[in-house]
Amino acid sequence: MKLLKYCPSCGQESLHWDGEKKWSCPHCNFSLYNNVAGAVAVVIRFEDEIYLTRRNKDPKKGKLDLAGGFIDPRESAETACKRELFEELQLTVDIAGLKYITSLPNIYQYKEIDYNTIDLFYEYTVSEKFEVNLELSEISEAIWVPLKELNTDDLAFDSQKQFFENYLKHIR
Q1: Dist CA 29 CA 75 (whole Å)
Q2: How many Cα atoms within 13 Å fall on the side-chain side of residue 38?
Q3: Sign, CA torsion 57/23/36/91
Q4: What are the φ and ψ backbone dihedral angles of 105, each rounded to 5 degrees?
Q5: Cβ(73)–Cβ(84) under 8 Å?
Q6: CATH class of domain segment(s) 41-171
Q7: Pick from 6, 12, 86: which is nearest to 42 by CA?
Q8: Do the Cβ atoms of 37 and 116 come closer than 8 Å?
Q9: Smallest Cα–Cα separation from 39: which of 84, 94, 1, 99?
Q10: Read out DSSP for 105-140?
């Protein structure tokens, strides 16, 4: 992990990383916590197919991903699902149709800093397949993938790999 060196309180090059979640300054007793961040991931499903996106940016550029993202301050996980699905896919969803499945820990590395996340997985079933016109900023493509053809090695994040290994066992 790229460590912070300078204390934001006293300015000295004295910050110490505890190796898990906290930087502290022995000179002024300042503490900075790198707490777990909440994130959502939505399995959009039509019959035996799921809708996946391909990442167009690091981390994990080129890998498949579930639609979703970080939960904003003062936002519920379900509201984050709705917002992220609209931002990424221009898909408007009814929050009542979201089905919570499970949560898994993950590490999201961005610019050499490891962010510990808790990924909340939801399922959203649609009545028909759809295609979206993407702005190619975060996503390079969105595709329907038959569940029986899903290769978890193609997925971007360990939490999603772990999720699908369990999810696929229960739906086959």
Answers
A1: 32
A2: 13
A3: negative
A4: -75, 155
A5: no
A6: alpha beta
A7: 86
A8: yes
A9: 84
A10: EEEEEETTEEEEEEEEEEEEE-SS-------TTTEE
Other Cβ atoms less than 10 A from the Cβ of 134: the count is: 17
* For residues 48-71, average pLDDT: 92
pLDDT digits (tens, 9 = 90+) for 60-105: 889 999 999 999 999 999 999 999 999 989 899 999 999 999 999 9
Greatest distance between any 2 Cα atoms in the chain = 61
Distance CA 159, CA 165 (A): 10
d(CA 79, CA 2): 32
Q: Can you tell me whether residue 7 is helix, strand or coil? A: coil
Measured from the Cβ of residue 46, the count of other Cβ atoms closer than 10 Å reads 14
Where are the CATH 3.90.79.10 domain residues in the chain?
Answer: 41-171
Q: What is the pLDDT of residues 3-40, one digit of tens each?
A: 788 999 999 999 998 888 899 999 999 999 989 999 99
Strands 139-146, 49-55: pairing is antiparallel
| 121 contacts 99 by C-beta, under 8 angstroms | no
Residue with tokens 């006293």: 10
Give the predicted TM-score (pTM) of the model: 0.88
Tell how strand 113-125 and strand 37-46 pair up. Answer: parallel
